[in-house]
From TrEMBL:
This is DNA-binding protein. Keywords: DNA-binding. GO terms for molecular function: DNA binding. It comes from Actinoplanes aureus.
């Protein structure tokens, strides 16, 4: 039986994947109603499934980049 590792992202990793946006901008994005729900809220902050974040980015990054710098 092969177990697929779970890949998680915290706010810092999301900031990097979004092109180095500010902490404030990452907070705005991760609090959008259409952003995936965090899978846990740890003492260090929220964490998301990397697959969910990457799927969201594939759908939203192009349309957002025409309106503002996400």
């Amino acid at each position: 039986m092969t177990v697929k590792p779970v890949r998680l992202m915290g706010a810092h990793e999301i900031r990097i994947r979004l092109g180095g946006v500010s902490r404030q901008r990452a907070y705005q994005i991760t609090n959008r109603s259409d952003f995936p729900a965090a899978v846990a809220d740890l003492a260090q902050g929220k964490v998301w499934l990397a697959e969910d974040v990457e799927s969201w980015m594939r759908v939203h990054r192009r349309q957002d980049s025409t309106n503002d710098k996400a």
